[in-house]
Design goal:
Layout lengths: L5 H4 L3 H8 L3 E6 L2 E13 L27 E6 L2 E7 L8 E11 L1 H7 L12 H7 L18 E4 L8 E4 L13 E4 L10
Antiparallel strand pairs: 1-2, 1-6, 2-5, 2-8, 3-4, 4-5, 7-8
The structure holds a DNA duplex.
DNA sequence: AGGAAGATCTACT
DNA sequence: GTAGATCTTCCTA
């Protein structure tokens, strides 16, 4: 298992979002290790993307999107913490929102963090996975390309699956391009369409 | 002070 | 499956 390096993130966010599918997100929580396979992600750009946090230019709360790739960018929407990874070509602006994972390790702890019955409800949405993995603002800015940090993304097993795309979920004004990517027929995907 | 925001939960048809 | 209440920052007036 190899941690993805910053070169992986130094590309068009749409490519990064697509290539993150099937990779493993690891969360170290004290002595425990939780992990999940990424099955859904969306790309966001800068000033040309009205749905992006970075749309109105650099501000204190969005500055991570303008900075070095490979750090996590966390913010709250409707009472949910959402996990993004900063990704863009050199000197660009952008990030990838992680929208859903399939639980791999630490499922019992995830169940404690989230009080739900069905397994699939544990992590099938951007706000749900952060709750299951205990990800909050506290981790904002963490560099996920370094070992020993509380978050990392590693290569998954080599596997074949079909990648589907759609428009982004819940955004007020979307771009014409389809910027949401998800693993075909995976039951942890937040919405089908 | 007020409202928008990459959502979620609950309670229905 | 859909509608409505509610979640908590951070921005704009």
């Amino acid at each position: 298992m190899h941690i993805l390096q910053s070169l992986f993130y130094e590309r068009d966010p749409a490519l990064v979002a697509k290539d993150l599918l099937g990779k493993i997100l690891i969360r170290k929580l004290g002595l425990e290790v939780l992990s999940g396979k990424i099955v859904e992600a969306e790309a966001y750009y800068g000033g040309e993307d009205p749905a992006s946090r970075a749309y109105k230019g650099i501000k204190n709360y969005n500055r991570l999107m303008f900075m070095d790739v490979g750090r996590v960018f966390i913010y709250m929407v409707h009472g949910n913490w959402l996990l993004n990874i900063v990704a863009h070509p050199k000197d660009g602006v952008g990030a990838v929102l992680i929208r859903a994972v399939e639980p791999v390790k630490g499922i019992e702890i995830m169940r404690k963090n989230r009080n739900v019955g069905r397994l699939r409800d544990l992590t099938n949405g951007p706000g749900k996975l952060t709750e299951a993995l205990a990800i909050t603002k506290e981790l904002n800015g963490v560099d996920i390309t370094k070992r020993n940090n509380k978050l990392a993304v590693v290569n998954g097993e080599r596997q074949r699956f079909k990648i589907c795309s759609s428009h982004r979920i819940g955004v007020k004004t979307d771009l014409p391009r389809k910027l949401r990517f998800f693993v075909n027929r995976n039951k942890f995907v937040s919405k089908f369409s």
